[in-house]
Amino acid sequence: MTSLRRRLLLGLGAGLAVCVGGAGFVFDARLGAVLEADFDAELARQGRAVAQSLVAVIRPELQEELNRLGARALTEPAEPGPRARLRAALKAGVRLELAETARRWGAYEPGPGAEYFLVRRGGAEVARSPSLPARHPALDVAAPGALDRTLPDGRPGRVVALPPVAVPLEPERFNEALGRLFPEGLGDVLEARVVVARGRAPLDERVAGLRQAFLGLLGALALAVLLAVAWAVRRGLRPLEDLRRRVEALARAGAGARLDPRGLPAELGPLAEALDRALVAWGAALERESRVSAHVAHELRTPVAELRAAADLAQARPGDPEALGLLAAQAGQIAAQMERIVGAVLRAARAGATAGRPARIAVRPSLERALAERTARAAARGLTLVLAGESLEASADPEAFETVLGVLLDNALAHAPGPGRVTAAVEGRASRVRVAVRNAAPGLVPADLGHLGEPFWRKDAARSGAGEHLGLGLALAASLARSAGLTLGFALEDGDLVATLEAPAAPAMRA
After folding, report:
1. How far apart are CA 41 and CA 194, in angstroms?
2. Would you say the pTM of this structure is higher than 0.85?
């Protein structure tokens, strides 16, 4: 048998593992991206520090020539020739240099853990760090951005290429005039591209340390949550254990005990109430069975005693043909009586079986057939059968409906005093069809109505021929009516017994 607690724990544990694993994966990826971005930002700051150390220096021997070309370009701004010659002269006469302080940066000196930078103008190298003895493919990056590369000394590293940066011109007096002449800028003359690189070991170590700490925290959190889930499941299933103890207490209490749903959660309350209703129904069924068994034993005592008396008489007169003939006749009568008792009990027991599927029943024609089958018996007892009412259709199991209806008619014919009449009427009430069978019952009182339908109940003063009737007909009808969804009722009206059978009305037929 599968444990509900185990299923809950496994399901919640699996869900928790998926959630924690997914959260850990996302956090790990995000952690690596954030730390890498911080690492790249720091590397970019170093690159900008290198760019800020750059200056554009005009060669002294070309300053006079640049002054002349600049003056002519200013006096003839509409002519493209002077500006083009000035650009060419600047490109040839201006060189980019690092400030003296930048040359003493220790981080860029050769040695273990060295960092690197490379400065280019256009495609030409302008400057490089002392740690970079020659141009290396690791720093040969054209587009701005950050990427992983293998450094010149073989270490894994990060390389950051900055966007082009403008380099100020020395002497500064040339900057204002060149700004007026070339508002679009002098990208190929006074712009530099800086690439910096460093080993990524510090980044990897930081990521690994934080990842290890996070995994430890995640494991501790998962363990705490699992313990909390196990405690919550155990506590949540405690009402089921309480319900089990209550049911076991019912078994010890014996018949008639009820299941009290008070104190149970709202989810278990309906279950407890349904179980209590089932216990009540089972108890009632057992009580009925016990009562039927007692009645059967009581009914069989008389024929058994008669059979024994006849046998004693035959033994007392051995060889007497008359005694043997009397014994045989009495034995046959007693066997027939016992057969009727057993058969009636079996029919009453089978009446509780599940009824068939409902179908449309024309009630008045069914009643007409039932009355026609009983006309001769009614005449023999001096009774007149009367049919009244409407032509209606009911929805019920036809066999169960006609069987119950026949029992009611038979009961009326068996117990109505003659001369008299038995009336069967059909009428519609809301969404139901009602058949009422009426007969005179001078001996019945209102207190007797509750016993009608009980197995073996008879009131001899109200029923003629009590020895021929076992009191099981109405019990069979009541059981069969319940299983078929029919309603059987009894009432006394002006000294008449009115037995009613109700069934749902058949839905109207579409035109």
Report:
1. 14
2. no
